[in-house]
DNA sequence: AGTTGTTTAAAACGAATGTTTAAAGCGAGC
DNA sequence: GCTCGCTTTAAACATTCGTTTTAAACAACT
């Protein structure tokens, strides 16, 4: 069973088309339905391919899902590591970091379909981890976590234990993600208030204030402990 | 089609058994598998009932799920509204609130099976909202949200807008829930550190410090704005 | 043209699921 | 004792899904 035309021994054909179409259809469908809910048939319909194509080209639904994750999370991000240069004041870098990740997560430009699918998949895989979660963590989460840890290291000083950095990072990530994970719940709470997603800039300001305040609280405690 | 023996006109039989067994089996199975993954057959097996029993007594899988949610979230909580009395200092009440909810969410006493199922269902329904999410919000989330809002009102003063209270409440809830929602991801981040669930007391201390600091930051801003 | 290996296509398979059916079981009331 | 209504049971039904099968279409090389 030849699986991949491009790795064939002699006759590399012109663009297969089908395999790529399957992959990008898979990204879209998985992004809006998740692994379980998405069906091979729907993906093939969207890729204008036969039902058997998935098994032929990828070996099965699960392998296709894995391939879709790899594709999506290997994409280079537009904005990124401008917050890595240690010359800028740490507080500014944190601001920039929050701003950029929140924009990333609550994609506002409806043009960037690929980016939307990417973050939909991030949410899906986060809320419902599959055996292939590692791919996403390694390619997507880890770099962002490292970046934040460096910023927090600067903010909290060299004496701050790793565990404290991790806790703070999680507090910050939690707040960034919360509106996406609890949107459905928040919408049903009385009194009904506009969701953070509807007032992103305001929520970003809250986020930075609350987080800087929280870090200040942690820093005070660190200093008190080291006396 | 008589649905309920206890609402029958004349002959209320001895304990039907089956319907109750079905309900409690449903709670357990849904709690560990979610709505989609759970199968009617497994629930019936666990309830020692026939496959058709679900449709006979409840009308279908979905109605059974709804009934399970109603059952579980109608349970009165052991600990609760001791933080409602406005005499205690607000900061203490926040401490108590965090402590009690975290304990609730990361149930440590393995005896309380019902409580575990309840919070498993809470997580499942949060991460994968069903059409019956409202039940849970109304019976479970709303009272806890109200409690926290009152505490935050005391902490931030009467001039704080509702929107600010809500944002702060969400920041705090986000942190409480984060370890449960992102446990799988955090476990895969390098360097590997013990998860908050493995060191709950330490994490609770972080949570209270970070949150009080965050609130202090918000309060400062409120005062500055009102000058 | 003919051969070969790869890709597509239609159909069918086999397993699992929620639901329905039709008959049997069973307790109470006349 | 018998009927009637509610409950339980086993079997079947209808659908859906991932996957397999089998054969036809296709492109390149000899």
Features of this protein?
Arc Repressor Mutant, subunit A; 2 domains; disordered N terminus; 10 helices; DNA-binding; Tetracycline Repressor, domain 2; mainly alpha; homodimer; 227 residues
Describe the structure.
The structure is a homodimer of 227-residue chains. By secondary structure, chain A is mostly helical. Chain A has 2 domains: 67 residues, Orthogonal Bundle (Arc Repressor Mutant, subunit A), CATH 1.10.10; 145 residues, Tetracycline Repressor, domain 2 (Orthogonal Bundle). The radius of gyration of chain A is 21 Å and the shape is elongated. Chain A starts with 17 loop residues before the first helix and ends with a helix. At the A-B interface, helix 7, helix 8, helix 9 and helix 10 of A face helix 7, helix 8, helix 9 and helix 10 of B. Chain A binds a DNA duplex (30 and 30 nucleotides) through helix 3.
How would the blueprint of this fold be written?
The structure is a homodimer of 227-residue chains.
Chain A (H helix, E strand, L loop, with lengths): L17 H20 L2 H7 L6 H5 L3 H14 L15 H16 L7 H15 L5 H24 L5 H20 L1 H5 L12 H26 L2
Helix pairs in contact in A: 1-2, 1-4, 1-6, 4-7, 5-7, 5-10, 7-8, 8-10
The first copy, chain A, binds a DNA duplex (30 and 30 nucleotides) through helix 3.
